[in-house]
Amino acid sequence: MQSYFEIKNLKINYNTFEGKKNILDIEHLKIEKGKTYGLVGESGAGKTVLALTILGLLATPPGEIESGQIYFDGEELLSKKEEEMRHIRGKKIAMIFQDPMSSLNPVFTVGYQMRQIIMKNQNVKEKEADKIALKMIETVKLPDAENIMTKYPHQLSGGQRQRIIIAMALSCGAEMLIADEPTRNLDVTIQAGILKLLKELQEKLKVTVLFIANNLGLVSAICDEIGILYKGKIIESGKVKEILNHPKQPYTCTLIDAAVQNESIQQNKKETRGKVILEVQDLKKHFPVNKGFFSKPAAWVKAVDGVDLKLYEGEVLGIVGESGCGKSTLVSTILNLQQPTSGKVIFDGKDMYALDKRDLRRTRKNIQIVFQDPFWSLNPRMLVKDIIGEPIKVHEKNGTEELIERTESLLEMVGLPKEGVFKYPHEFSGGQRQRIAIARALAVNPKLVVLDEPTSSIDILSQTQILELLEELKEKLKLTYILISHDLSVVNSMSDKIAVMYLGKVVEYGYSKDVFHQPRHPYTKALFNAIPDLHMEGVEGLVSLEGNVPSAINPPSGCRFHTRCPLAQEICSVKEPEMVNLGNQHSVSCHFSEMNGPEAKSS
Amino acid sequence: MYRNFLSSKALQPRIKELKFSFYLLKRNQLTKISLFIVLGLIILAIISPYVIPYPEHAQMGTNPQDKLLPPSSQYFFGTDELGRDIFSRVLYGTRISLNTALLAVGLALLIGIPLGAIAGSIGGYIDEIIMRITDIFLSFPPLLLAIAISSILGPSLQNAMLAIAISWWPWYTRLIRGQAISLKERQFVKAAEAIGTSPIKIIFSHIVPNCISPVIVQASMDMGGVILTIASLSFLGLGAQPPTPEWGLMINTSRNYFLNAWWYSIFPGIAIFITVLAFNLLGDGLREILDPKTRKN
Q1: What fold, for B27-49+74-294?
Q2: Is 50 exceeded by the pLDDT of residue A403?
Q3: Were both Cys, which of A56, A148, A177, B20 would link to A85 (CB 3.0–4.6 Å)?
Q4: Do the chains contact at A394 and B206, CB–CB below 8 Å?
Q5: Strand order in the sheet with A176-180
Q6: pTM score, two decimals?
């Protein structure tokens, strides 16, 4: 008996510069109607190729389908003509892409686009189509549907856009959804909402979902069955529980370990105190909006609005917050890559903003930064030896021979073979490139290293390795870190202190064990409970925050979080809460921090 | 630096890159053909003085008794009003056109790239000043501007070349500036800044190498346009002066004999046509190689 969706002996090759490569070799994969199947694999495992093949969108050449069949609802898809596929694609099988912006047309309103699709697919008149669209938008739980219909895609947030895409897919009566890492570019609190929605729709409308992800935690929360894709082959598949509890393949074990490790809480952080290495006093950075050549700015984006921080030597400070909260602006302002609006930064006894250009360049030797995306942070036209050698060239005078030797030893220090110095960055994987970026940051023995989301754009296996490497280097080289991330678990596993940021302000600050075990601010709690746990069954436990991060141009009055806060009361929209010290350097800015005590922490 | 570049280890990855470029090049038939034509033209330009049957006809020499003969085995493309072999002159003309066009585009790039990179990376008032100057140049049609400049400088091939360079550089400045603006927000530029690299070094070792590809594409396409413009200027009497065997000039003189001697104007015309087309196709192909976004599968 044939399943609802089944893949048999699918082999796909790619013709590349280096010859033919087999990139996908799936013996068997089946999904029953109304179930969710999670496909987990690192980038480059062939996940997206599979999704495109199912929809008949694989580019041939360079792709080439050697053999295999894909059955969907009793029909074989691979032998279908393009014209027939067009009826299946969108109507019966819909795809949700990583980046929702790429599947919406930026010059039409959301409502117009939905109406067109519905009119075409369901043969209805405009008014009828509008009604269906409204209903669909409500189905995907977007508030104020009528207003949303009149918006252009860029006026919506990432999460809203992703919901619209889902609504569009459903409005054509899609029976199967292929979700290709639909939450990759979203914040954790938004991600939780999308996961919940997918789960609910699947239960209510009996939609079959093929969920592609690179993270076991995500998949385990919403899927019935999972398959592990490794180098184009499904090496293990079965029920979620079975695989998590009794993995058979070593690769699966490492994946699980990686997910668990990120969750584990490091308790034994020492509270030793050296001298203050960095002090940030009431730092503000406002960007002008609509500034013409002669005119005055119309408004200000208050990206960083009064931040105080103190960092001791040898400490790791974690800064967490959703995208748009000002984390990255904060560090680039601290590093004086941008002029601050006001405030002071004292690094190693020197006022960063009072230095002249030459002194500033000399000081920068001691503060280095590792950026989020290793694909953009390394100059693609330079050899690795020139990339790592750049800071050495700038700060020390060295001969060529010595320089190459130094770069080789730096490369070995971060765990890469020294032959790599004569390669271009694109010859390395994401994790390896991040190692190169770390080697560059450490080339001139800095005191402080700023890690700007060092793991968020690389695979989960490399993530743990990178975190371990950073930990090891910190001990070895006596480094101080500022670690920025939107992922609390990453921050938690490394940092001594945590600062939680929301809309340009620090809302909670303290030792990581305090913040983690006894989060006092509702925002911290939401962040913490939005990450799907490996052993979580279902999505009920996930906390998703309603609404979006408000604009920093016109931040909400009073407490900035009150528009999304579950505890919000009248006072919150009127009075801005002060930072309250709860002892042991744990401080929080919330009117209800008292009643929101330790016992209120949900599991 | 130089020694460094020559050491074999550092050269290897670059050779690999080149091989990859050739692999991409081979996949596109039109690009391949245009590359062969351009290479052929360049070789022709170099060896033409030694291979043409009547080298003296490309210089001052005349041969009045054979004037205006149609194409034959003796004169493949026929002869002109002074009995000179048109085949020899057209082939020699490759040398003149390519040489002048290369120098003109090179000069334009030499002015345009640094200015554009500086404007884009530094921004502020410097950007405003540079861009307003380019706007002034851009507000004239390039051919008209070239005509105006070369008529001020006086008619000669060198002046025509200068005039073209002057009217062409703003295009490169604009192109590079746009690239530089988006590049300076890239993380590797921020990283270099955080390292403490000086602004000048950032511009020339990080920004320029990364925004050069579209300029190479544009420049190779412009080669065709510039060759055409040189021919136009010469046609108008503002460029090469007789007896230089310049294509445009030849077509100009041929006008008087057009009804009786079709070969006189046709062959230089074909030479211009092939050259311009080859450079344009090559530019298209290069774009595909250098800019992955436009790459067809």
Answers
A1: MetI-like fold (1.10.3720)
A2: yes
A3: A56
A4: no
A5: A93-96, A176-180, A208-213, A36-40, A225-230, A233-239
A6: 0.77
Nearest CB partner across the interface for B10, out of A362, A383, A444 = A383
pLDDT in tens, A476-496: 888 899 988 877 777 877 888
Q: Are strands A93-96 and A176-180 parallel, antiparallel or unpaired?
A: parallel
CB A383 within 8 A of CB A422: yes
Confidence of residue B135 (pLDDT cuts 50, 70, 90): very high
> CA of A91, closest CA in chain B: separation in Å?
27
User: pLDDT of A503-539, one tens digit each?
Assistant: 888 888 888 888 877 888 888 888 877 777 666 666 6
Q: Where are the domains of chain B?
A: 27-49+74-294
Tokens in use for B46? 């170099």
B256, B215 Cβ separation under 8 angstroms: no
Contact A381 B193 (CB under 8 A): no
Which residues of B fall within a CB distance of 8 Å from A332? 190
| Alpha carbons A83 and A81: distance in angstroms, whole number | 5
Q: Looking at the DSSP assignment, which residues form a beta bridge with residue A345?
A: A280
A357: its two tokens: 């250009």
Q: Where are the alpha helices (DSSP H) in chain B?
A: 2-6, 8-26, 29-51, 55-58, 86-122, 124-138, 142-153, 157-183, 187-195, 199-201, 208-235, 247-254, 262-290
What burial class does residue B209 get, using C-beta atoms within 10 Å of its C-beta: 0-12 exposed, 13-18 middle, 19+ buried? middle
**Residues 6 or more apart in contact with residue A116 via CB below 8 angstroms:** none
ipTM over 0.85: no
> What radius of gyration do chain B's Cα atoms show?
22
